[in-house]
Structures are given as C-alpha cells and as structure tokens.
Inverse folding.
C-alpha cells in the first residue's frame, strides 16, 4: 500500500529568519482582528524583541481626522497592531529628509520628526505613495516571535517595496502567499472559516 503525504503545511523551502525589513505573513488560520490574514513589516528586530506594523488592515479613518493641521492627505489610517493603539506611527520613503528617521530596508524608513512629515505633506512634497500612517503597532518581547514562528503562525518573507505603500490592500495577503509558490499557493485558497465551507 502507498501512503500519501497530505502535509500541506510543511513547505519544502527552508524558511527565512526574521529580521528588520522583512515581512511576516500570517498562516491561514491565525485569528484575531489584527493578525488574521495580515502582512506585518518588521521595523526593528534584535535581542530586545521585535516591532512591526500591519500593512493591510485599514481603520476606516483618515489621518487628517486625527492629526491637527494635516491637509490633503488621501491615504487611510491603518491599524498597526494591538500595542498602544492610541499612538500614531508612520513609515515613509523620504529618507533623511525627515530628521530622526530610522532606515528599515531599501527606500523604507520609520518615524522621524513629525512636524517635518506634516510640512512635507502639506506642501505637496509627500503623499500616500510615500507616507503610511498607523494607529498602534505590533510588538514581541524577547523570544516571543521565535515561539510563534516555531508554532508556524507566520511565514517570513522578503519585502516587496511596492506592496508596502499600496493603497489596494484587500488582496495582498493572498497575492504575497501565492508568489512564494510551494505549499503557500494552497494556503492562499483556504477559506477564512473552514467550518463554514
């Protein structure tokens, strides 16, 4: 008798390790309002833990609704994660034009002088293709992310910079998994609630 292998959760490729500038892709059955079918950009990673921002969860609000003196910004306010959800954060491609900005990867930077960001937006030198705002962030204490990775809650992947500032976030979880090939192509077709299928 031939025994068939139905282990569709075991990829053949060796997984990448987490690092600053990489993304975490939620496995299909990870639940919760922040992390279900999410893509998280890791902006800080080290022995102190990890920090990141969920790229594809909109708050249905706009930054100019919560930021005084911000005009004509057409991008949405995203839910960065469950930690300190009453704080505002931003990533951008403006580099060191923004004093205090921290390099993440490629052309992506995190934070910096908030007044300078507002001035660049209000003067038309920055927009939603170069700045993305988040309410709250995602944080992991030392060893916590590694435990979640061992439990197969996340897939670590390289970043696609076009994806980070895309305003069309509805399908990026599925598209990103599909591009990885291997068993991940199967994952992206799993129903959100398997019991309802």
């Amino acid at each position: 008798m031939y025994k068939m292998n139905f282990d569709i959760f075991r990829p053949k490729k060796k997984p990448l390790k987490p690092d600053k500038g990489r993304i975490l892709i939620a496995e299909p059955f990870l639940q919760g309002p922040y992390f279900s079918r999410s893509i998280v950009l890791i902006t800080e990673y080290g022995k102190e833990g990890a920090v990141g921002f969920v790229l594809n969860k909109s708050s249905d609000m706009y930054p100019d609704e919560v930021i005084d003196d911000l005009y004509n910004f057409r991008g949405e306010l995203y839910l960065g994660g469950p930690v300190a959800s009453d704080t505002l954060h931003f990533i951008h491609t403006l580099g060191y034009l923004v004093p205090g900005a921290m390099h993440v990867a490629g052309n992506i930077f995190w934070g910096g002088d908030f007044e300078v960001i507002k001035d660049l937006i209000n003067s038309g030198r920055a927009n939603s293709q170069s700045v993305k705002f988040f309410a709250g962030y995602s944080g992991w204490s030392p060893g916590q992310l590694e435990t979640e990775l061992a439990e197969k809650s996340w897939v670590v992947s390289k970043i696609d910079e076009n994806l980070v500032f895309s305003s069309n976030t509805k399908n990026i979880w599925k598209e990103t998994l599909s591009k990885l090939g291997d068993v991940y192509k199967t994952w992206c077709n799993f129903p959100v609630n398997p019991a309802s299928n």
Residues 4 and 108 are 45 Å apart (CA to CA). The chain has a mean pLDDT of 89.
